[in-house]
Amino acid sequence: MERSFPELKLPGDYAGTLLDYAVQEILKKGTIDPEYIEPHQKSILFVGNTSSGKTSLIQKFYGTIDSVEPTFMLDYFPSPEDYITIDDDTTKCHIWELGGGILYEEALTYLIDSPNLTVCLCLNLSKPQFLYYTQEEVLGIVLKFLKDRSDFKSSHKSRVAAMPNNHSDAGHLKPFPFPLIIIGTMYDVFYKFEPEKKRIITQFMRYLSHLYGAYLFYWTDRNNEIIKHAKNILKHYSHGDDMIKMKKTDYNRAVYVSPYSDNLTEIDPIASKMEHSLEKYRLTLEAHFPQERISKSISEENPADNPKYAELLIDLIREEQLQKQATIEYWSKKFEEEEREELKLLMEKRLKTKRRSPLKKSKNIFFRKFINFATSYLKKFLNILYI
After folding, report:
1. Cβ-contact 135, 115 below 8 angstroms
2. Can you give the pLDDT at residue 100?
3. Cβ(322)–Cβ(316) under 8 Å?
4. 64 pLDDT exceeds 80?
5. CA separation (Å) from 355 to 25, 344, 349, 352, 367?
6. Per mean pLDDT, which range of 43-57, 215-229, 246-260 is the poorest?
7. What secondary structure does DSSP assign to 39-100, as a single string?
8. What angle do CA 8, 12, 18 make, to 5 degrees?
């Protein structure tokens, strides 16, 4: 006997079931329908060196307080302010975090079609010895990935067009192909540095963001005002809110510099425009903080053992396979030990048959000498008798 289920009717003017609506939406997405409006979506990719505070920043942006663990490969955070309606006209943001510095650059290919992408580079201010090569190597792998995207040329063109033509440094700047945010993390540690060290670090950070047309701000999760400013800035890139234009360049306080609001003469009043370059600021950093490259060592921790990635069915299958593997390894090891013991006994047995004691050997030598001596005398005796 067939069982009948009640149909789920959609509220409003739409005549049909929920299943009918889902089928029609899928068909619309698979065909060219001028009346179908794709939901407005945005993406933010957080990159940077390990332990640079990316995860804690994302959690504060969400207003969550979870235990922070090192990110493995690529992590995804759906925006908590998103909501889905039948009309589906809400701006949604997909937030991604690349873990391990530059170890897992291949994972970026997963984001090849992520819509309206913004890159967020986190640089650890408390470890200035890694500043230069972190930005160079991390932005290098990101740029390599971005060039494979279908919207690379159009995004680069719009970024160049967004640069003010009347800016005094227009001929010197090189806008990054996609919207870029540079965040100086661990500001609470940086704040305690000597003023001269803070000046040199901030000078580099300002030049880097100005060169690429990026938004620069300093960050710590221990200051409510800084958290508030960071949320407002990020909402422009995540949900299209109006950009918060700020310019606070006092290195003894948290720094905020919106795109193209800075200029080279303010960053370093002594140097001429021709002298400004990444190499110049690298040498300045090098003189005070010898620069080091990002570590490429892979952690020995197995992510499959991390409860963060727990999956009941997969973990049960994995546990069964591990038990089988352990059983095979146990018996293989036992058989090897038995074979090794048998081989050892066989070798000892052969050595015993070949080995002779020194006493027995000396007796054999004496006997041979006696036989030889007796034989020679017997020959002599026989010769005398014969004569």
Report:
1. no
2. 79
3. no
4. no
5. 90, 16, 10, 5, 19
6. 43-57
7. PPEEEEEEEESTTSSHHHHHHHHHT------PPPSEEEEE-TT----SS----EEEEEEE-T
8. 30
DSSP characters for 252-312? Answer: TS--EE-TT---HHHH-SSS-GGG-SHHHHHHHHHHHS---PPP-PPPSS-GGG-GGG--H
Q: What is the four-CA torsion angle of 310, 314, 320, 321, rounded to 10 degrees?
A: -110
pLDDT at 144: 93
For tokens 């979506």, name the residue: 41
Residue 323 falls in which region: left (phi positive, over 0), alpha (psi -120 to 50) or beta: alpha
Task: Check whether 365 has a pLDDT greater than 80.
Answer: no
Is the pLDDT at 107 greater than 90, yes or no? Answer: no
Whether the pLDDT of residue 223 is over 60: the answer is yes
Query: Please, are residues 151 and 77 in contact by the beta-carbon 8 Å criterion?
Result: no
| 39 Ramachandran zone, left/alpha/beta (phi>0; psi -120 to 50) | beta
Q: How many residues would you count in the chain?
A: 387
Query: What token pair was written down for 288?
Result: 């005070």
Q: Determine the Cα–Cα distance for residues 70 and 49; give it in Å rounded to an integer.
A: 11
Question: Structure tokens of 273?
Answer: 């425009």
Residues forming beta bridges with residue 75, ordered by sequence position: 97
Query: Is 175 within 8 Å of 164 (Cβ atoms)?
Result: no
* Lowest pLDDT segment from 9-13, 94-98, 238-242: 9-13
Place of tokens 């994972």: 107
**pLDDT class for 45, splitting at 50, 70, 90?**
very high
Q: How far apart are the first and last CA of the chain?
A: 133
Beta bridge partners of 48: 122
Rg (CA), the chain: 38
Mean pLDDT, the chain, whole residue set: 80
Distances, alpha carbon 31 to alpha carbons 25, 34, 54, 125, 289, in Å: 10, 10, 39, 49, 57
Using the predicted structure, report yes or no on whether residue 172 has a pLDDT greater than 50.
yes
Burial of 330 (0-12, 13-18, 19+ CB in 10 A): exposed
Mean pLDDT of 178-184: 96
pTM: 0.69
Rounded Cα–Cα distance for residues 270 and 265 (Å): 8
